[in-house]
Amino acid sequence: MKTKINRITQFFCLSILAISFSTQVYSAPKTLVFSAIPDQDQSQLIKRFGKVADYLTQQLGIPVKYVPVKSYSAAITSFRNNQIQLAWFGGLSGVRARLLVPGSEAIAQGKEDTEFVTYFIAHHSTGLKESAAFPADIAGKTFTFGSKGSTSGRLMPEFYIREYLKKSPDDTFSRVGFSGNHSRTIALVQTGAYQVGATNYKVWEKEMQDGKIDGSKVSVIWKTPAYPDYQWSIRGDVDKEWGEGFKARVQQALLDMKDPALLEAFPRSSFIKASNNDYQPILDTAKEIGLID
Amino acid sequence: MNKGLSHIRSARWKVSWIFIAIALACLPFADLSINTYDPMSELGRLFSGLLSPSLFNIENPLHALLQTVAFAMLGVSAGCISGFVLAQLFHFRLVRILCALVRAVHELFWALIFLQIFGLHPLTGLLAIGLPYAATFAKVYAEILEEGDRRAYDNIRHSAGLTSSFFYARLPDLWQHFITYTSYRLECGLRSSAVLGFVGLPTLGYYLSTAFYEGLYSEVWALLILFYLLIAGIKYWVRPKLLPLYLVASPFIIANDSSISFDNVIRFFTHDIIPLPIRRGEDLNGLWHWFSELFMNEALPGIVNSLLLTQLALILTGFIALIWFPLISKLFFARFARSAGHLFLVVMRSTPEYILAFILLTLWGPSMLPAIIALALHNGAIIAHLMGRYSDALPIRQDAAKGFNRYFYEVVPRIYGQFLAFLFYRWEIILRETAILGILGIATLGFYIDSAIQDIRLDRAMMLITITALLNVCIDTLSRYLRSSMRLSMSAQVNAS
Q1: What's the predicted TM-score (pTM) here?
Q2: CATH says B15-52+279-497 is which class?
Q3: Which top CATH class is B54-272?
Q4: pLDDT > 70: what percent of chain A?
Q5: Fold of domain A117-223
Q6: B466 and A CB contact within 8 Å
Q7: Taking a C-beta distance cutoff of 8 angstroms, is the pair A172, A165 a contact?
Q8: ipTM score for this prediction
Q9: Which of chain B's residues have a Cβ under 8 Å away from the Cβ of A148?
């Protein structure tokens, strides 16, 4: 009995030692850590963004690491908690994150992000066809958004549904779901699990190109007006950590990213400068439909 | 004697019928439709994945496996040690109430809360498992201590100190009970650890959810098989001699380079979870408005849906358990058939209900149906397993009937009380599990909690989590009342599990 208790005490102490030791070892180097919202193609995240981390390491001369996160809110929280200092956010997640971290800034956006668009897509059995006017016939159908915190998959489609139908999504549709991400929205509407859905146009185009979409089963029925979306946001205190002018260097490194293999991770054709003011419309919309207090 | 017995039985029958009636009354309000147009093609892809399991697309399967084990090991041992200490204090009412509240919140929600405080730091996963497990350990250890034989202890208590009498006169007697229960919880811990991957821990669930989301069924099966092997092999790889090695290695496996900021912790408690009207300095009126809106629009529909789902799943669980338990019972099947039955029940009960619901949701589309079936299959398999083992110990007369007659007229009537005890014990667990299915989009309380967290409205999330916990405590109390009023003993539960 006594030896058993001894043994228990022994390995309990050892594990405490190991815990403190392991955190000691790992907290030494100052690495810039970045992440990205998991909006599509999650199984390839590390493959996609690992290359970007290598590029930034090389450009900035300090170790840069990518950590994957599972949800939009986890990306925002890590940014807020300074566990990541740089992030590839969507419009809404970026606005939320910057509200929580005073001094943080949007520094770059994809060339396509100044005029981003959401596609409303429908299963062929609904008989809905593409139109220039808002498809009021979607009322009463089943409908899926993307992630609850997505700009193109939630905020903007909900805004236009309320704008045109004067009703909340819950009152408009017979069932409302949140698929989790844009690829999943397309898959769910394609199988008919939901009749109508809203998805990010870049993801739609990429999946179309990759041959994942069966045009006889699902098609685009409406395109929203353009709005600003994804951007790189950086915390305000990075200059203090890595020296004066660091933020500007990160911005320059992002703007200089020209290698198509890197840009494909986003997927964007190039990056251009951005500022917090560019996202005022997103903040206003989010407040209007009650997603931000 | 005779009169007394028939009275007890009639109470059991009455309660059974009341619960069946409640479930039938719930039916019209539950959404049970199948929404996919061609579930067969998805089903086909799911099963063709089974024929070609592959880890090719998973970025680091071994890493995920090690993380799953490491989080479970550390979380369960932390819970076991603190639970053991708490069990000694279990006679304090405050400790009991606190433990009940902590237990009432599912580990996935704890993970979501700690994710807000500690972010990606390994402490998130450690506490998400350790905290609710500590509360459960405290309760069960206290029960074991209570039921144990105190005579030796009472004898030496005058001549020896409190600690030594405890370690020399109580612990040795009960040691085996502690070990049995603790190793059972380690299996649960592995399940929890895997499932926590669905909210972002780098365990098997992380890759599993990704593979599910993208329809990569070969990867899904490979990961599930890996998980079944891990669980089925527990008795081979969990050895007392190897435990110190695992425990020492685990911290290194889960360590990452994120750090904890104390400011975040303070901010969480003093700002984030304070209701918005208070933060804005509004008066009580504003606070009441905030609360009533939250309660009417989110908590109430969430409670209704959670209860509907729970009652339907409970009844189905009962039927499934009654149908399945003969599969592993010596009274009904020969050895070979029983091993097949065992294998079947092991797979059904070690697949976490969260994962079962996820599969069924993909096949049938969003409604309550996948959730009910998932809960019933998982919990039904657990109860069937316990009942099967219980029935083995039943003395049967040489000339007893066989087959269906034996089932209906001999075995079921004799173990019905035990069956109800198991079922009512799972009642609260099923309710807790309905909440987490909300993360998959079924509009239970969990759905609204998840939405609040996605919107970074932690004040709302905390309020909803508190309401969920209180609901669970209510059901737990009701279930305990029913069990004790029908004199259903739970002692077999601890021994059997």
Answers
A1: 0.87
A2: mainly alpha
A3: mainly alpha
A4: 90
A5: D-Maltodextrin-Binding Protein; domain 2 (3.40.190)
A6: no
A7: yes
A8: 0.83
A9: 450-451, 454-455
